[in-house]
Every structure is written in structure tokens, then in C-alpha cells.
Q: What sequence folds into this?
């Protein structure tokens, strides 16, 4: 026998189910008055620094149909590349930018819109920067463990080409699954759960 | 005025332990039919955490309303309360090192005592309770502990197999210190025979893992003549010490 490491096991995940809105966006699903506002609704205010953008996201199943009961959370750096987090030790992030957003996909169209700013670059390790990106976490009925992925920006061609995380994707034809196209000031990001265009999901 | 007991404490900035994906349910679990078309089929890209996953937003106790952790009253008309078996759910949020996780945001939602959710897509014939909304939230204390009050949710049938029933359960969303710790799970109740019949519970491969989601009846935490108590601890990914790792400052 040796000493025990006394580690605990992470609680196993269970699906968010079809009624995730009741807990995470109750005002969105017709339960007003319990919480003043759904958390994660507003990421920016009038004083937020940086370029205003809209991210239009959808999650598509194996038949190509959009999920109308998914919930997406995003997390990103501010315009200067700093996270609004106690764990950010490189400097103080923009106090007028939360960095975190939460949206339920529309129950008809399956779309959700995040009003945010374009993030700055953050380091991968000393001396190496990552391209601007937004971290995604996706849950829904039928998803047993929240899916983690990233959205990069199509108009950051050079930064994307140098990005150390994108460089880890063996099958280069899959890299575009993480890159959102720009239409005016809207970035369009379709997340494919299956099929030829299956999004690269992360074990991170 | 409160005094920070550890004023010189530095935030922990290490990466999180690798997730043991054999302990979690796999994505493709045909016994739970909805997973079939919603499960990624290609291998995940495995990466150590970057600053984008090590960091995460923080939620302050000041955002909480007085009844946020009281589902018996937070949707009820003044002077009324939700119908059902009154319970207290309490426990701690820990990480895999056994350390309490302070400041974790817990959000929970559930069906009413008859097994009916307050949701436009819900079609079960059981009655809605006009005094029950079904959602609540709280933030853990300095040692990771939390508590809330509710009614025991009822089991309910769902369209999967012809006669599949969900055991009584409460959904939990947990926000720890880093975005990589983000977790949603469900709490079940000690002694419920439906647990072991449920296709969603059965997505978890290991019986011992399921048992960590079953809250224990705790008669010592029960309030006599008021409410029974169930204890439910939640474990999030642990984090590595960053003492011997390259730090990101100065970049």
C-alpha cells in the first residue's frame, strides 16, 4: 500500500435537458419576477472600449436542423486582450465589459445574438500570442456533457495562420469550422454537431 | 464590516486537471434517443488549458435577492407558498483536491411536486402550481457551502421509450473559478427506485459515479416540524499548482 492521494472525482455531468431555460434564462421562458434580469444578457454598456460587433450563433444537429432549445455561453477578453476575471494577473480589464454572455437559442429560428466587442489577442505562453477568439460552451437536451469550442474571426487571416491552437488541428480542412464569416458588423458562427462540417470541439 | 481573513491571498492561476471523460457520460448514448443526432462523432482536440479557459467571470453575493434561494416562496403570492414536501438542500462545492470552492454560482431548476415544469414546451398533464416557478440560485460561502429551500420535485414521464419516467431530480448549473470548470448536472434523491431505470441516468457508465449524484437524507440537518434536509456535495475539476510552471505575466 502507498499513501492515498485523497483526490475526489469531478461530479459526472448530466444533460441540461429541455427546460434549461427555467434555471438559466427564466425571464426568456416566461418566468418573470424571480430574478430581475437573466444573467449574461448584457456584456457591454455605453462606455465599453473596442469595436462593437454582433455574433450570430446557431447549433445544428446531424440532419442540419438548428437546435431550438440550446443554451450558449461565451467568454472572451476585452479589446486590450485582458480578461475580466480574478485570475487575470496581467492587468485590469475594462470595467465596462463583462467578457461573459449567456443566450438561449430562439425557440423558432434557433439563432442567438451576442452584442459584444471584438476581443484583443491574449498569450498562449510567453512570447506567443493567440489570434482573437471567443470561447464557447454549449449545452442542450441530448448533449450529455457541455461542449467546448472557440470562434475565430475570418478577417484575422494572418493572426489565425499564426495561432498555436488552430495549428494543433491535424486535418486542415476542419480549421474553417472554427472561423466565423463577417457580414457587415455581424459574425456568423454555425456550430455543427455532426457531419462533414462537424465543428472541432475541445477536450481542454 | 467584514474582514478578509487572508488579505494577502493571491488568486490561483494554474490549469485545471484533465477531465476524466470515462467518468462522464459519453456523447453518443442511443438509450437516450435525443443524443443520437446531437453527439459529436469526431475525436475531440485535446489541449492543456490556456488563459482563455483558466479565467472566468466572478459573481458577487450582492447580486442575490433575498428569496433567490427559497423556491417555496420566490414565485408565490404574498402569504402563500408552493405545494409539496418541504425540503432543504445543502452541501459544499469542492474541487478534486478536496478544497472548498468559495464564490461559486449555483443555479438550480426543477419540476413542481406533481412533476410538471413551468415551460411552454412542457406537455405533461400534471397541474401547474400557481405558487411555484421552479428556479433559484445562490453563491457558495468562503468554505464552499451552500443551502436552499424548495419542495421535493415529482417524477414525470417523458417521450423516449413508451413508458420512461425521470426520477425526482433537481438540475444544477455550477460556475466555479475558471470557464473550464463549467458544469451542469442533476441531483437525485436517496431511495428513489426510478434512478436505476432512467435512460438519462444510465448515460453515466459507472454505478459509483451515479451514486455521487444521489443526495442523502440528513435527519440531523432537518428542521423539526418544517422541512427534511438532503445533503448534496458537488465536485469541480481541481487545478494544478502553478508554482513550477511558466507564468504568463509580463507578456
A:
Amino acid at each position: 500500500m502507498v499513501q492515498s492521494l485523497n483526490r475526489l472525482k469531478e461530479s459526472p455531468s448530466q444533460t441540461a435537458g429541455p427546460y434549461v431555460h427555467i434555471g438559466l434564462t427564466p425571464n426568456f421562458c416566461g418566468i418573470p419576477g424571480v430574478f430581475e434580469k437573466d444573467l449574461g444578457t448584457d456584456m457591454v454598456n455605453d462606455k465599453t472600449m473596442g469595436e462593437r460587433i454582433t455574433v450570430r450563433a446557431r447549433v445544428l444537429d446531424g440532419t442540419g436542423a438548428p437546435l431550438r432549445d440550446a443554451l450558449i455561453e461565451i467568454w472572451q477578453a476585452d479589446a486590450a486582450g485582458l480578461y475580466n476575471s480574478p485570475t487575470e494577473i496581467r492587468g485590469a480589464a475594462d470595467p465596462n465589459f463583462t467578457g461573459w454572455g449567456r443566450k438561449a437559442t430562439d425557440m423558432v429560428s434557433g439563432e442567438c445574438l451576442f452584442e459584444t466587442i471584438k476581443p484583443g489577442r491574449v498569450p498562449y505562453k510567453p512570447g506567443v500570442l493567440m489570434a482573437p477568439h471567443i470561447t464557447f460552451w454549449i449545452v442542450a437536451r441530448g448533449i450529455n456533457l457541455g461542449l467546448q469550442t472557440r470562434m475565430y474571426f475570418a478577417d484575422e487571416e494572418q493572426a489565425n495562420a499564426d495561432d498555436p491552437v488552430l495549428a494543433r488541428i491535424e486535418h486542415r480542412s476542419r480549421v474553417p469550422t472554427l472561423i466565423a464569416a463577417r457580414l457587415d458588423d455581424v459574425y456568423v458562427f454555425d456550430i455543427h454537431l455532426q457531419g462533414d462540417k462537424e465543428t472541432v470541439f475541445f477536450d481542454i | 464590516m467584514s474582514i478578509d481573513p487572508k488579505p494577502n491571498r493571491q488568486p490561483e492561476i494554474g490549469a485545471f486537471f484533465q477531465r476524466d471523460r470515462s467518468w462522464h457520460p459519453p456523447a453518443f448514448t442511443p438509450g437516450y434517443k435525443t443524443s443520437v443526432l446531437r453527439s459529436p462523432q469526431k475525436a475531440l482536440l485535446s489541449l492543456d488549458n490556456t488563459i482563455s479557459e483558466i479565467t472566468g467571470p466572478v459573481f458577487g453575493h450582492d447580486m442575490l435577492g433575498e428569496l433567490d434561494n427559497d423556491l417555496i416562496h420566490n414565485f408565490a403570492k404574498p402569504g402563500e407558498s408552493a405545494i409539496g414536501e418541504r425540503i432543504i438542500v445543502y452541501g459544499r462545492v469542492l474541487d478534486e483536491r478536496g478544497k472548498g470552492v468559495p464564490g461559486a454560482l449555483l443555479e438550480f431548476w426543477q419540476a413542481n411536486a406533481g412533476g410538471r415544469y413551468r415551460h411552454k414546451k412542457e406537455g405533461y398533464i400534471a397541474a401547474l402550481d400557481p405558487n411555484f416557478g421552479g428556479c433559484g440560485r445562490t453563491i457558495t460561502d468562503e468554505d464552499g457551502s451552500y443551502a436552499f429551500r424548495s419542495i421535493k420535485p415529482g417524477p414525470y414521464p417523458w417521450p423516449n421509450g413508451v413508458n420512461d419516467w425521470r426520477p425526482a431530480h433537481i438540475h444544477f448549473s455550477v460556475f466555479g473559478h475558471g470557464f473550464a470548470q463549467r458544469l451542469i448536472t442533476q441531483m437525485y434523491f436517496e431511495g428513489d427506485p426510478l434512478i436505476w431505470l432512467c435512460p438519462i441516468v444510465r448515460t453515466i457508465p459507472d454505478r459509483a459515479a451515479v451514486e455521487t449524484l444521489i443526495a442523502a437524507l440528513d435527519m440531523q440537518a432537518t428542521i423539526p416540524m418544517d422541512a427534511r434536509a438532503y445533503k448534496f456535495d458537488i465536485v469541480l475539476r481541481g487545478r494544478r499548482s502553478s508554482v513550477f510552471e511558466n507564468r504568463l505575466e509580463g507578456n
Observations:
- Chain A has one domain: 20-192.
